[in-house]
Design a protein that fits this description.
Two copies of one chain form a homodimer. By secondary structure, chain A is mainly beta. In chain A, about 10% of the residues lie in helices and about 35% in strands. Chain A contains one helix and eight strands, in the order ββαββββββ. Chain A has a four-stranded mixed beta sheet, with helices on one face. A two-stranded antiparallel sheet of chain A has the order 3-4. At the A-B interface, strand 1, strand 2, strand 5, strand 7 and strand 8 of A face strand 1, strand 2, strand 5, strand 7 and strand 8 of B. Strand 7 of chain A pairs antiparallel with strand 5 of chain B, so a sheet runs across the interface.
Chain lengths: ~120, ~120
């Protein structure tokens, strides 16, 4: 059996985030019980800030700038764990939310379920 | 209090998926216990096929074609629930996996955790 090279993107130990053409990857945030909080995007700077501060920071595609979640609302996301997927183009972040994670005031953004073609509030 | 219009994207009951410039949105798939399985993309056709068949179908960005998960491996994802986020550009899918959801053979794609700058297998 050939040992896995640490730089192998899928099996190795090197963190080599794979950004898309816009320099972004997808980040999913769930609470410690696995409930979905939000989905957003990160560039290299957002990842570095998240790691440095322990609070989730994203790249706002609509505003075209770095956006620390909770910077105005105070509803920061304190990061407990960061996982990466096989090809390293998505992150799975477990975080403690300091308040509602959705800008609508809902605990998380996925508050509606599709039922027979229509959305039903959960 | 003004009643919410059913077409209101954030609060209404109309399913109006918001696709990006490439006609795609992000779909996160978890198992019924909330464990992450995979993250992929869907276009309108993939959503329609998923709803029609009850098995998760995506758009493969690398191959540029519709891709039913498990079409070759048999490891289909039987959909239990589909949720949509506030601005309807992401789906949260709860599914029963018929086998490992990751092409590497892992149960899910997020099998490594970032610890002190390196990836550690969970």
């Amino acid at each position: 059996m050939t040992p896995t090279h640490p730089d192998d993107a899928e099996q190795g130990s090197a963190f080599q985030p794979k950004f898309d053409a816009n320099g972004l990857l997808t980040a999913v945030v769930v609470d410690p019980d696995g409930r979905p909080l939000m989905l957003a995007h990160m560039n290299r700077e957002a990842i570095d800030m998240t790691l440095a501060t322990g609070e989730a920071t994203f790249w706002s595609r609509s505003r075209g700038k770095i956006w620390k979640k909770g910077e105005t609302s105070g509803h920061v996301l304190r990061v407990r764990e960061i996982r990466v997927d096989c090809d390293q183009d998505a992150l799975w972040i477990v975080a403690d939310p300091a308040g509602p994670a959705c800008h609508t005031g809902a605990p998380g953004c996925f508050y509606r379920r599709l039922e027979d073609g229509a959305l039903v509030r959960i």
